[in-house]
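Mods, move this if it's the wrong board.
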Amino acid sequence: MHTAGVTSLKTNGTFFPPLIQKNNYKTEEIQVMQNTVSKLLDTSTTSKKPGMLLGHIQSGKTRSFLGSMGLGFDNGFEVVIILTKNSNALVKQTFERVESEFTGCIEEDELAIYDIMKIPVKLRKFELKKKLVIVLKKEKKNMQRLERLLFDMYPVLTARKMLFIDDEADFASVAYDNVKDKNIIDLKVIAGQIDQIRARLENAAYLQVTATPYSLYLQPDDMNIHEHKTFQPKRPAFTELVPVHDKYVGGEMYFEKSNEEGHMASCLYHEIQEEELEILRKSDKRKVKVNHLLNGERYEGIRSALIHFIVGSKIRNIQQQKEGERLEKYAFIMHTITTKAAHQWQEEVMLHLEEQLREAMEKEDPIFDQLIRTAYQDFARSQRKDMYFPAFDEVLSNVRDALIEEELLIEIVNSEQDVDHLLDKSGELKLRTPLNFFIGGQILDRGITIKNLIGFYYGRNPQKFQQDTVLQHSRMYGARPLADMAVTRFYTTRRIYDVMEQMHEFDTELRRAFESGANSGEVTFIQKDSDNTILPCNPNKILLSSVQMLKPGKRMLPSGFQTIAKSYLEREMKKIAKHVATMKQTAKAIHPKDDRCFLVEKEKVQELLEMIYQTYVFKEGYEWDLETYGAVMNYLSEDTDTNRKGHVWVVLRQNRNMARIRKSTGRFEDAPDTKQDELKIARNLARIIPSLILIRQNGAEEQGWRGGAFYWPVLVTPEETKTTVFAGRGVKER
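Not the wrong board. Structure tokens:
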């Protein structure tokens, strides 16, 4: 995908060299820009078959398309239309970014940039001869304005070589049917408007910029199911992959590295309770005792969030001071709901919390030192060994000063505010004070860049994660220094965290399938029907909160559960032991070197899983979706034409003593299987059908259990599994 284009490009023109000098582009970045412009010149592109820049969330896509734009200006393009998401703040951010990048060209009258809402009434011929950039949000009336501008007011522009850049063209920008959300229906209309405008132009190209490869599977045309239930991505005219810079922090840090014991990422996630989110959704002073915010258990998450933010910021400032660096200002985002009434209530709660913290400090209440020390000790666990870590007394003193000097600003950020108030000169969210605690909704998830973000409190309802993508809400992704990551914390419920983790995996696997070209980039989209049959389904019918990504060697298991009372458990375990013995006696095959591995019909394994399920008690947010688990096992065991069809390998192990909670992180254990023993064997056996590792834990009370033995199942997907999107639930037809 990174082959050089056919057209020979001019690289020493007016626009591109200053950008190279200003931004210090690396060789691989320049290559992508050259490829992009060459292909835009050589290839016919439309909104239905666009050129595409595919990057990661906040990974330098804007930097890449602006470089391509400058190179394009030096090679024949004269007018660029930049389409942004439907947000005034994002229009302003984009406008100011373009203006900043091309300052010299603007001053030399080589280029003019206009926000379509503020374009002068009558442009003179002199002005129209310049290279032009027009920025507008994807909104029906704006598209009508663009149409009038090009064909009624300044028809001379229609003969000039034009480039449309559809920024943040994630799958919410793609046109498709059967979607309730009005904005997405509007975007279907907008896609039609773009095509109408482009059809009347003599020479126009179209480039999409996106971070979500899912959009490739949701293009308007050809939504038919291909052979073998797979979907080929809608192939753009060409795709260029934006290089990921070495300072990029994304889902890998939050959802993969976080599982590694001892890694700083293992300290990132702090679980909050569903009850706390409910408290923050609407004002209810009968339920919320605002005078108990410093010690009430119900407010532990928001209390920890605010105090960790203050302490973490001060640790960084002390480190910067010691290194002789400028003291940075820091940001925190609280994003739980979109209603303005909820934002006002959350602001009131947080202001009360700040006030009580200050009062505790002034009264020398021991709780103040205790709360600061708890945050300090948590950060001590995630510190880098090569960095200075200040003493507690120094941090405590700096926190006191920050509260006395009112360095903390708790501010609502929503669409009603004046954009000029929100953004600084660089188009980023303005950091007015050393500590900026932002409370908001949709405006924070539309591509707005937030500098020095070290805290994220997230609570959007995962039941509604359908076409809207959580990944676009993930403002904590981007260029983040590792020293900042050491004091970064992410707060959400376990249920939401699991959905976000699934979506990260979903995005990663689709990207991998597309980039590698494995199976021609095809991905299987299937869902479980109401009668438990497995059906192929359209990608736009998938409810993303129920997605499981299937890939070779993946482990699937319950975690966070507790066992039922010991007396009941012993009775159930006798039944399970009898069932396991019967399975082994009637096995179709037994491993020649290990008689604890045997081949069983999937129906018998399903019965076993249902029996095991009855021995568990689940905490909210940690429920085991046995129905989907069984459906996945059923699908994997049937997806072969060999004599193993309909069977599962069982790998049995006894007498294990795994703790329920890891001491090092305080998180629930999710790796009861030993890599060098049963997991290695299970993956070797799972060539064409799945394996189920069945581990009998002793369940001792000192390990956090209830004193009775139980079985812990781990399903391992076959080596030959193709990239598959398995939806436990789909979007209901209307």
